[in-house]
Amino acid sequence: ILTPVCLTHLLCRIKEFSEWAQCLVLDLVSKYVPSDSNEIFDVMNLLEDRLQHANGAVVLATTKVFLHMTLSMNDVHQQVYERIKAPLLTLVSSGSPEQSYAVLSHLHLLVVRAPYLFSSDYKHFYCQYNEPSYVKKLKLDMLTAVANESNTYEIVTELCEYVANVDVPIARESVRAVGKIALQQYDVNAIVDRLLQFLEMEKDYVTAETLVLVKDLLRKYPQWSQDCIAVVGNISSKNVQELKAKAALIWMLGEYSQDMLDAPYILESLIDNWDDEHSAEVRLHLLTAVVKCFFRRPPETQKALGAALAAGLADSHQDVHDRALFYYRLLQYDVSAAERVVNPPKQAVSVFADYQSSEIKDRIFDEFNSLSVVYQKPSYMFTDKEHRGAFELSEEIGSLSVGTESMDIAIPAQRVEANDNDLLLSTSEKEESRVPSNNGSAYNAPSVSLATLDTQSELISPLSSLPSYAPNPTLVIDDLLGLDLPSSSAPAPARSPSPPPLKLNAKATMDPSTFQRKWGQLPLSLSKECSINPQGVAALTTPQVLLRHMQSHSIHCIASGGKSPHYKFFFFAQDTEEPVSYYLMECIINTSSAKAQLKIKADDKNTSAAFSTLFQSALSKFGMS
Amino acid sequence: MPVSASAIYFLNLRGDVLINRLYRDDVGGNMVDAFRTHIMQTKELGTCPVRQIGGCSFFYMRISNVYIVIVVSSNANVACAFKFVVEAVALFKSYFGGSFDEDAIRNNFVLIYELLDEIMDFGYPQNLSPEILKLYITQEGVRSPFSSKPTDKPVPNATLQVTGAVGWRREGLVYKKNEVFLDIVESVNLLMSSKGSVLRCDVTGKILMKCFLSGMPDLKLGLNDKIGLEKESQLKSRPNKSGKTIELDDVTFHQCVNLTRFNSEKTVSFVPPDGEFELMKYRITEGVNLPFRVLPTIKELGRTRMEVNVKVKSVFGAKMFALGVVIKIPVPKQTAKTSFQVTSGRAKYNASIDCLVWKIRKFPGQTEPTLSAEVELISTMAEKKSWTRPPIQMEFQVPMFTASGLRVRFLKVWEKSGYNTVEWVRYITKAGSYEIRC
Fold it and tell me: Distance between CA atoms of A90 and A80, rounded to whole angstroms?
């Protein structure tokens, strides 16, 4: 969009814009793709003084331009980091905590991208006693990221101070930070000592966090087991209540049972309290630990093993039950084979999985200076409807009252027709899709699914309680087969390639749960906002008015609700052509602002455009355009 | 382009909406209910200033007894949004005459609506500078009857403001006496370990100015900072005078400062706005002179007794003195009885913050008063929970002292009519977060 002429024009006059307008200009500039390196340097020279601007938003916007322009030039990119470091650190230390939080989030992103460039500035990330916890948490993350051989000692010393902090979440976070540093370092000697000191602080939450970390540490550095186990052995399992910590402790008891004198007895007492252990995760760990312990010290553990297997087999949790059964049969089959399975020589874990892919990190970096950085996820994850979860829609339908109009539409004859038609369809489909045996059940779907649907749709009882009402079997089968678009996958030899003029079935039927499912599955084919003229608003005193109007155009309502000025309607319509395809619509109307929002989803993409025009023309007669 | 706000709400502490303004219709009018139920009425409040509920993001800030909430539904520019709120509050304060709270909002509904219309369009912030806005929105805030009445000012030609190159100053100002006040305000942040080593120390300073100058004056400010001095000695090929030079880590300037000229000549030159403004901000980490040293010794004698000895040493010049020195020494929650001996000032035990508060109104340089206290504790059953020692915190103000050593070397005023000006320069050092672990 931005031509070089336009760019220079804007940049040379940037001082004439107000500080807020400068932010917008800079944001525009960051989208510009420079043609060569000279142009990049020109832009940066023109903008360098913006980094000294008093308005933090301008500084961040400039930072974005610099970072994005130099992405292709590695060495310059690094110099940019050096240049922007000081202004960003200033922004962090001035202004309200909320402002510094916003800036810190960006700094955090940069620190994580290039920790080595910030390793000498670690003191800026020390927490102050009175800072709010959201600032502290980011700072802890950054301290973890910048730790390297030269500054680890200072950073860990500082982190240890925070562990004694009154703020429990921060104390926990600090312990985790120490652990993370331990996992990324080569020389962990001093850190292990510190971690073990935490265990001696005798604070429940510190102990719990530390146990989890010691476990991870032992998985990576088994050579430290002697030191750790000596301390861990002194911890009474009664003082450990948190699930993860308990699981970690049990894991260590199993793994190092030969080094811990009373490991079998601790496990035994834990098994005695099997029923009080509510977490399946802990019970799973307990089972494995007992089996491991059994192979190391059989005579002492045999009794506990028996008790554990018995308790496991009687367990109501499927996984626990299965694992107990598995161990039981394995031991029965061959004890030495079981030992090879349960107690193989351990391999140290070299790298723990990173929870965020580099692709996502790059996406966030592309969206520098926006919310994405604060949330630490790319914008599509929190702005698109699809990613926010499907629960919103089902809640909506559930809370709406069902349109009474559609009740009298169900006509048996028509349904029979549909069923026949489906039998044809399914036989022709059999050849290509009858692979797994459980598909067979799909063919008697009408009866089965009716029963299940009845139970599902208690909320919308007026419709589903009608005995004559059945779902369209096509949908059910396709659903079970996992096909999205029935009409496109079904063979339709009779159909001409060009779509005939669309005719809607005046007596179409559909049940609410099918609607709900289809609504969730189908992609949006049209979303539109339109305004309603005054006559339309005046006519819309009750939802029924619109329902009758739409029905005269063969568009039926499945659910409607709301009270003035907000109304919400869900409509559907059915094609008269074979194979039957459905169109679903959502219509949200606000009579006070005279606005309506339309969403259309269609089974058949080919005819969706034709339908949209039809639907809109029907609405326009009601005064919406 | 990222917006800054779709809607802005002002809520009181109970969550009632005082004022709201929708800038875009992509957020529903009832989103604020979600904020109330999901943030205000839960423990979430204060855990994070940016939260997402449903499809909307909420940015909130508490200012005195008002929550200002910004709602957006798109991927907005957070830094800009927070800056906008801060600036808007500053603007409201200048209209209301200093205070911004629930009462001030209730008294000024109409004015606030008018301002909200002006300072943001369709989610993009517009001009927020009070000097300019006061030209268009001449309505005055309702002040408390006791504050002094503002003097009437003539309304000058407003169109110049929008088009003219100098957006922050109007033309045709006349003062009988031309004066400039310049304050260097530094706040020292310190984090000292219990062993007395400095973990972290920096100074954030700002230069505040108050100008009462006629016409369109050009000002030039010289400081004893390293870069500026070096550049000057280069230009004038004059050997650098001996004396301390200060290395500024980072500087930011008010929009009136000519940044291009700062980059090429390293001089701060500007056409100042009328009245008060913040000329520049800077940060210094090297060579900070700490005004106070604190030497604490806290001994726990058994389970019910503690001995606290704190020595505070002032290390600035003997002729100077600090004002309003407050030293907060933390003690455990279960403190029962305290007794003090202080060589200067007054001390008392404040149970609500679990601190011994030692106040010294006037603290001369090169002295070292001490406090020794005995603290008796209630013996509790939960003896295992050892006391986590929070840091000692300190507040102070030292006039005519800069922790960084920064000095103003010259302040030149040039105006075409060539009038004489009177310049006043003040220095003050305050405590930022001055923490000593013990």
Answer: 16
